[in-house]
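Researcher: Please generate the 3D structure of the following complex. Treat every line as part of one assembly.
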Amino acid sequence: MTIRSGTVYPFAALCGQERMKLALLLTAIDPMIGGVLIRGEKGTAKSTAARGLAALLPPLAEGKAAPFVDLPLGATEDRVIGSIDLEAALAEGRASFQPGLLARADQGILYIDELNLLDDHLVEAILDAAASGVNRVEREGRSLTHLARFTLIGTMNPEEGDLRPQLLDRFGLAVAVSGEGDPVTRVALMRACESFERDRDAFAGVWAEAQAALAGRIVHARNALPHIALSRPMQGFIAEICRRNHVAGHRADLAIARAARAHAAWDGRDTVTAEDVTEVAPFALLHRMRGATPDMSPPPPPPPPNQSPESDQPDEDGGEVGSTLSPPPLAEPTGDSARGGAEDKDEVQAIGAAFTPRPLGPTPRDSVLRTGSGRRARSLSASRQGRMVSSTPRRERDDIAFDATLRAAAPYQLSRRAEGPGLAIRIRPEDIREKRRERRVGSFLLFVVDGSGSMGAHRRMVETKAAILSLLLDAYQKRDQVAMVVFRGTGAETVLPPTGSVERAARLLADLPVGGRTPLSAGLVEAARLLDRVERRDPATRPLVLILTDGRANAGLGGGPPHEEALRLAAALGHRFAAARFIVIDTEPPGLIRLDLAGRLAAALAAPCLRTEDLRAEDLVHFAKEFQS
Amino acid sequence: MSLIDPVRPLYPFAAIVGQERLKTALILNVIDPSLSGVLIRGEKGTAKSTAVRALAALLPDIAVVEGCPFQSDPDDLKAMSSEVRARAAAGERLPIVTRRVRVVELPISATEDRVVGTLDLEHALTEGKKRIEPGLLAAAHRGILYVDEVNLLDDHVVDVLLDSAAMGINVIEREGISVSHPARFTLIGTMNPEEGELRPQLLDRFGLCVQVEGLTVPEQRVEVIRRRAAFEADPDAFRLSWAEPTEALRARIVSATALRSQVVAEDEILLDIANRCLATGVDGHRADIVMLKTAKVLAAWAGRDKVVATDLDEAQTMVLPHRLRRRPFEDVFRPDASTATFRAGLDHGKMI
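Model: Done. Output below.
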């Protein structure tokens, strides 16, 4: 639903979406819950509800309305966090602080639409302030702290790529929304929207009473909140729920406790009951459970219903995350385990072993992120395209950041003016700052995967998939683009066009079949077509192309023997896309006679060739990373 | 400013051969700008750009506060910049000019600050005061924002475009500037799907979507060449010869615009819409709302004050195709027994 003017759609008039409304109301009652993340498909009134909530908040002590601050995606860091006041600097030569959006949102709502599209460093700064209630500014040699007690509401569409787990964890509550399945509700929704658009003020008038009732109930609940008791058994119950769902850290416990108290207050009770807890627990668990992200099965699965402390179902809980510790559930086997049987479990373990040592653990991940931002720094835009992320005194291009230059010059204006006549503003060469711009799409990974029958032998495909998967995880954290070409049978196909959605890629990978002949040439041609498209779209990209094959080309395009044809095409491909980097991953099974066809392919591409023996996930990830930088 | 050059002679809209669906979609948006735009998908050389540019000549006149860079509407407080609103509140008689609705072109190479607006440096340096230098979104307010090859647009620009298109307000928080101004525009984009898909989020923002193809009837192709040649030989004479159909078209748009607010849709029609959307499996409810609006405008365009089922048939072809959920991969590929393995692997990898 699109609101196209200052008049906000009344919260009370929203049709359906009860869970989302409840989560928003809870955070309005207790802003310390730590914000709400609304995750869901397009066009489900996510933004409308968030904006509507602001109108329900009680006014501040001074009688002013609670602020609702909309953080646009194009916001620069100085405006979010605050910086030197340009006007004061220019007019009076005074360095005074101009508060940013975080200051403006104090005691109100900070709303970020499409939060997952915002730059990670901004999200981190905002979450820091949200958690501590204060904003610390260290800019232009000034340091300052001010209050920033706001309720953070973010919306996101997982199709656009997910937030990193660390960031997800810092939202108090999360709620998944999807469209209403009932045609009658949809009709009611269309009618409401119709009359809202016809006459907004009249519509608001019709709902005024219901709005006032809601607002009154929020105030009442807020006042009651300090007197709500949370008994010891209830605290134990909350801890048990969190333990069962294998959430890391204690944020979930705290969020559930706060939300349960807010829920009791909302219902006008003075004691938290088990119902309060089970009602709000999904909000705190959805984004913290393993497997909740990346979203593997749309719509996001609700957490297992641990209805009460009495109903012990250890089997089901164990089955939720991987059956290494507990026996598989007897009651309702999932479709996959029903098909695969014992062999499936072997595969789980094999991959687990391959992944365990490195490099995705917390400590190595940190270093990954550092190189990630380092890589981003090197891929800073050389052209004047991209967004300004900061300024630098280094002079390289003629892309002057005037605001930063003026800020640098401002403190000296009075003293410089005293030196004699001149321009209104005395700017010296040492004041000049340049813009540092960043382009969002850093790298692009293209997987060219051999899906022919020979790949099925000796479980080669299992290991190949494991390798791809680990690279996908890496791409997920780095927000890379990925694409996948598969060649098998009679031809090649771009099964995954360039996308930022690694979930899609992972889902696709899981179901990737093997069988048929090996049309390697067709695969290379398809890869060239895709690379060409990517290059045209963004000439600055340096794609990383991973060709996973045993090289046994046995179906050509009619240009001679299939294998020779493929080698000729490979040479041309390497030549044509000089900016791209190629890696061939030889999946030839070990045996007495090795044909090393993949090695010849790599030579034709002037690319390194990894053997399947080296194909342990961490080696490949490191290798790829080394090669990218 | 990338306004479409008014001096260059425009090919008359009425003289475009074929492409009925494209023409209808564009006209519907002129009648009801709240349909939020058209995405035109198709290969090169199918009159996409010609049609959009020609549309400018059909657009109605609007009253604008003179000298306002934000195209403030003198009669609507919500469509005014804060400066103009303050002037109106102070009782000032606002100077008004009447001009045609604008088609503002957003070039692919546009940077974020040119689109959103940024600090007016000259003003800051000479006057010691901050002032915003309005961007393309300000210029496009109450008009049409035209993006050729929208799928090649820089990601950041797409993000800010989405932000404003969704809210009808452009919020500028950059480089020491904090301003917001109304930015309600009809977004018209063209794309060639071969060059890559548009992100689903942006796809959904386009109210309507039409697929254009080259004409297949030989007589029509001949007619295209004939008219084009006549236009290029003498644009003014050609336009004159098409003045009458153009005027008729404009008159029909005016009467449909007047009729639109009276069009009603019965409950059965709404239920029909909901069922069509549910059956095709679209995300969210935007499809329902847009389909209802489109059907109403189609009824008005046909001179009726009531929506009928055939309106839905037509509306559906423009509202639903780009909103269908992508075909799940499971349908394309045989489900592999190792699905669980890789899901577990992914979760496992995330947790270590």
